[in-house]
Amino acid sequence: MKIEFAPLNIPMRRRLQTAAVLQWVFSFLALAQCCLAAFVLMALSDWWIVALLYAGWLWLDWDTPTTGGRRSHLVRNWTVWEYFRDYFPLTLIKTVDLDPKKNYIFGFHPHGVLVAGAFGNFCTEATGFSRLFPGLRSHLLMLPFWFRVPFFRDYIMCGGLVSSSKSSLSYLVSRPEGGNVAVIAVGGAPEALDARPGALTLQVKNRKGFIKLALKHGAQLVPVFSFGENELFDQMDNPDGSPLRRLQNRLQSLMGISIPLFHARGVFQYSFGLIPYRKPIHTVVGKPIPVSQTPSPSAEDIDHFHGVYLQNLIELFEQNKLSYGLEENQHLTFI
By its UniProt entry, which CDD domains does this protein fall under (predicted)? Predict the structure, then answer.
């Protein structure tokens, strides 16, 4: 394989953009393991009293990820996220105003490999979420497992990440004062296994839990499509039924997380590595679907609003696809 190295005279700003994305990839793939190792080593060292105090704090703070988390305005506005935004670049597009007195569930599509668009738009202020949607607070839902890791849980909560448990989502969208936005990557871990350039297949046909909770609490449903999300990484071929896919599905059933074997470019060369390609991401927030509170929604209610949601998602995609690099004959597929 011929290796294409990056030129030496790259402007400093582009180098800083690459560094910002590198730290994000590291945070996503390895920071939790490093935090856990640091806690164990601290507990076994002369600093064991610090580990003990933190364990006490962890016990007292255990429910915070399911009760709105602990956002940090400072962390969300770090300069590093501006470099992260400019690397792709990443853009957040508003189609309509949203009433800050209501609660919302944003259905984010597609999941992609590392959910870069959801993180950059809803866990930082780099693309201006608070400016575009004044009075709203965004919370990206993440697997509960990660909020059990010492130190790491505190860091990710600073950006607005919260547990994806049912109780966590219910807490956010049931606040009477409104203003909460719960962002859900609806396709979840299984969809990440199909994330590759050109992919437009969404795992959403049987995803109805968020519809049920929206009905139960009267939260408005908002489809969100992130154009370019699947263009960031290549992935090893893993068609359904292949040995690799069976192994990935087995690991996912055991651990709750998917393990896509992805690759893109490196830091100093463009031929291989885990740094995403520089491809633009345009995240378009659609119009809200009015939902009346139904404390005990029937299966018919859920199916009706699920169908309405899918139709609105299709319309959002079709209305914007030509503006963001897709062809007229490209359409979404739901499985």
Answer: LPLAT_MGAT-like (cd07987)
15 sits in which H/E element:
helix 12-26
Q: Which residues contact 7 (CB under 8 A, 6 or more apart)?
A: none
Q: What is the mean pLDDT of residues 55-75?
A: 97
The model's pLDDT over 227-254, given as tens digits with 9 standing for 90+, comes to 999 999 999 999 999 999 999 999 888 8
Pairing relation of β-strands 262-263 and 234-235? antiparallel
Assign 189 a pLDDT band (cuts: 50, 70, 90): confident
Q: How far apart are CA 12 and CA 291, in angstroms?
A: 49
CB < 8 Å & 24+ apart, contacts of 20-27: 20/80, 20/81, 20/83, 20/84, 20/87, 21/83, 21/84, 21/87, 21/275, 21/276, 22/267, 22/275, 23/80, 24/84, 24/116, 24/119, 25/114, 25/274, 25/275, 25/276, 27/155
The type of residue at 315 is E
CA distance 300 to 106: 22
CA separation for the pair 137, 175 (Å, rounded):
12
Domain residue extents for the chain:
12-334
314 pLDDT more than 90: yes
Between strands 161-163 and 262-263, the pairing is: unpaired
Residue 1 confidence (pLDDT): 67
Q: Where are the alpha helices (DSSP H) in 143-208?
A: 152-158, 166-173, 188-192
What architecture (CATH level 2) is domain 12-334?
3-Layer(aba) Sandwich (3.40)
What's the rounded Cα separation, in Å, for the pair 290 and 304?
Answer: 13
